[in-house]
Amino acid sequence: MLWVALAVNLAMFVVELTAGLLSGSVSLLADGIDFAGDAANYAISLAVVGLALHWRARTALLKGVTMAAFGLWVIGQAIWHWVSGVVPDAPVMGVVGVMALAANAGVAAMLYRYREGDSNMRSVWICSRNDAYSNLAVLAAAAGVFGTGSSLPDIAVACVMAGLALHGSYTVIRHAVSELRHSSPERNPTAQEEPAG
Fold first, then answer.
1. Helix spans in the chain (H)
2. Taking a C-beta distance cutoff of 8 angstroms, is the pair 147, 116 a contact?
3. For residue 192, is pLDDT > 60?
4. Which has more confidence, 160 or 117?
5. Do residues 19 and 49 make contact, with C-beta atoms less than 8 angstroms apart?
6. CA 146, CA 138: separation in Å to the nearest integer?
7. Residue 125 belongs to domain spanning
8. Any idea what the CATH number is for the domain that residue 37 is in?
């Protein structure tokens, strides 16, 4: 499942990044960068899925920090687009937004059973869930830009996406830190952990 998620996210990264640059949409650009971050997260998850819990928790902690950095980057991009006054291409936003929603909804459904798993797998599901929400917001932004001729809906959605990333980051980091406290061999050298299957 992680291999499928990785392939889907790499493909959509190329599509959304290109569309974001061509259309002038900060929400599409942000979503495209998020796809790249998720692809990296899935690759990391594949690398550690069979390792002990404390290693998976450390990886999840790194992913949480990455999600926070993404959220802050999106806020910076939204401010820059507000200052520059770029109005994005609404039809391009709509078409690509539908493609991205289909991709993310499929991945999130596939990973749904892992939503209460360890911090590593839970972070994978959180990324997919947040992406599906972001895609719905991009579609709303496309409708808003089309109806108003203003970049404000696009900028507002970018800020929503940043908020989702920051909230997801907090959840993942909190869970990972909790697991590290209870499973780290440095703190509990006698603990016997079984690798994840």
1. 2-23, 26-48, 53-84, 90-110, 119-148, 152-183
2. no
3. no
4. 160
5. no
6. 12
7. 2-183
8. 1.20.1510
Residue 81 tokens, joined: 């687009």
C-alpha–C-alpha distance, residues 123 and 146, integer Å: 34
Torsion of CA 140, 93, 6, 173, to 10 degrees: -40
Cβ atoms of residues 37 and 67 within 8 Å: yes
Residue 196 lies in a domain: no
Q: Which residue has the tokens 């290109």?
A: 18
Other CB atoms within a 10 A radius of the CB of residue 106 amount to: 15
Higher pLDDT, 101 or 46: 101
Closest listed residue to residue 30, CA positions, set 152, 164, 124, 145: 164
Q: Are 165 and 63 in contact (CB under 8 A)?
A: no
- Domain annotation covers residue 192: no
Is the model's pLDDT at 23 over the cut of 80? yes
Q: Which amino acid is at 29?
A: L
Give Cα separations from 160 to 17, 40, 102, 157, 196 (angstroms).
18, 22, 20, 5, 34
With respect to residue 188, please indicate whether it lies within any of the assigned structural domains: no
Report the distance separating Cα 169 and Cα 126, nearest Å. Answer: 9
The three-point CA angle 190-193-195 to 5° equals 155
What the block records as the tokens of 171 is 């959840």
| Any domain includes 193 | no
Q: Count up the domains in the chain and report the number.
A: 1
